[in-house]
Write a structure and sequence with these properties.
Distance between the termini: 46 Å
Helix content: 25-40%
Mean pLDDT: 79
Number of helices: 9
Low-confidence stretches: 357-400
Bound molecules: zinc ion
């Protein structure tokens, strides 16, 4: 019975609308939500799982059991109906936010839209992982985010240019050590390296306000930098979520090298690996160019190379990287994510990043301890991924 249902399910998945993921339109979904009745790709199915079973129960075509009731839900619903049902409201909310509340236009009464935000956030210490209370000041006029060790400090501990700053809601599985779900992961470039800082608030609303305030400040900055661009063109460039994060094993280039567990972050064309997910700097950053330029990814590690779990190989012009995932699904998912980056054509901005990071593709690097000790006037000038090139770049909008 189960096998008959599975076969029928796969037929349903070939129909128009069902043949792409309901949430991201990735082709040939092989997962489904049996509570909502939509067909999903693996990546989106994982997010559905995270929502909890009271909202969505995601099942794999292959790995899960398909009973009559689940199949019936899929038959009765499907991606087209779900879109009409769920996105009707989304569209209305979008239109209300845009035209009625004018959230994406000018200054409104929303806290995050006043162009200035000041407050205390808990920040994870760089070395000891302890949470410390720090004063943060976001200024649209100065185009900076600063933080101070003490409330009455005159000199900020760090000055981060808005142009360099990215904010992402933390992956909850990284937060186990901190046990606070209201966390933002901020990244910026410091001397050409990706610096991460983690901030937390007891109050979920407050962290969302900081997130929105950073986006609003970035929007303001981009409007000045690109006066001819429409808001619709600027909106996708306010903040950028990571494509993927998670544990992988990685081994060095020498035959005797052993595998080490590392936390990997795929941030657009940058694949970073860290010893601890909450480290301030990655141990290494690998630039991912396009396929035609000797970048390639493939499943499996051929002998005599050292094997572990579910291996895969990333080839860059400088080096062959051997990675391993704990499960077949994880391996598939990483290969899927990295391939889509390699298949995206590079923009001139992307290539300039490559030139600057080229050396680091071959070596992991040790961090200079003194790098963070400088305190004032540290405006990261000239060391930004986008700050320098954005102003000149006509092709900025191919950088996403
Ligand atoms: Zn999807």
């Amino acid at each position: 019975m189960g096998e008959v249902n599975r076969k029928r399910l796969k037929e349903l998945a070939k129909r128009e609308y069902n043949n792409v993921c309901a949430d991201c339109e990735y082709p040939n979904p092989d997962w489904a939500s049996v509570t909502i009745g939509v067909f999903l790709c693996y990546e989106c199915a994982l997010i559905h799982r995270g929502l909890g079973s009271h909202i969505s129960i995601a099942k794999s075509f292959e790995l899960d059991n398909w009973d009559q009731a689940s199949l019936l839900t899929m038959e009765r619903n499907g991606n087209e109906l779900a879109k009409q049902h769920y996105e009707k409201v989304l569209r209305e909310q979008w239109i209300r936010a845009k035209y009625e509340r004018k959230e994406f236009m000018n200054k409104s009464d929303a806290v995050y839209n006043r162009g200035y935000m000041e407050g205390f956030l808990m920040k994870k210490g760089k070395k000891d992982k302890k949470l410390e209370k720090r004063k943060f000041v976001l200024s649209q006029v100065d185009q900076t985010l600063k933080y101070y060790v003490k409330n009455n400090s005159k000199t900020p501990k760090a000055v981060i240019n808005i142009s360099d700053l990215n904010a992402i809601f933390c992956d909850p599985c990284k937060m186990k050590t901190v046990k606070n779900p209201n966390a933002l992961h901020l990244t910026y470039l410091k001397d050409g390296y990706t610096r991460s800082i983690y901030v937390y608030s007891e109050d979920g609303k407050e962290i969302v306000e900081w997130y929105n305030a950073i986006r609003a400040a970035k929007f303001h900055y981009l409007q000045i930098a690109y006066p001819t661009c429409s808001p619709d063109e600027l909106l996708p460039h306010l903040t950028r979520d990571f494509v993927k994060e998670g544990w992988l094993w990685k081994t060095g280039p020498k035959v005797g090298d052993s595998y080490k567990k590392r936390w990997f972050i795929l941030d657009y064309r940058k694949l970073m690996y860290l010893e601890d997910p909450l480290d301030p700097y990655p141990k290494g950053e690998i630039y991912l160019g396009e396929k035609s330029k000797q970048f390639n990814i493939s499943s499996g590690i051929p002998p005599p190379l050292k094997q572990l779990h579910f291996g895969f190989i990333l080839k860059t012009p400088d080096r062959t990287w051997l990675f391993s995932a704990e499960t077949e699904e994880e391996r598939k998912s990483w290969i899927h994510s990295i391939s889509s980056v390699l298949e995206t054509p590079e923009s001139p901005q992307d290539s300039s990043v490559y030139l600057r990071q080229n050396l680091r593709n071959s070596f992991s690097y040790k961090h200079n301890k003194s790098r963070d000790s400088s305190s004032s006037n540290n405006r990261n000038s000239g060391s930004s991924l986008t700050g320098g090139t954005i102003r000149k770049g006509k092709n900025f909008f191919s950088f996403s």
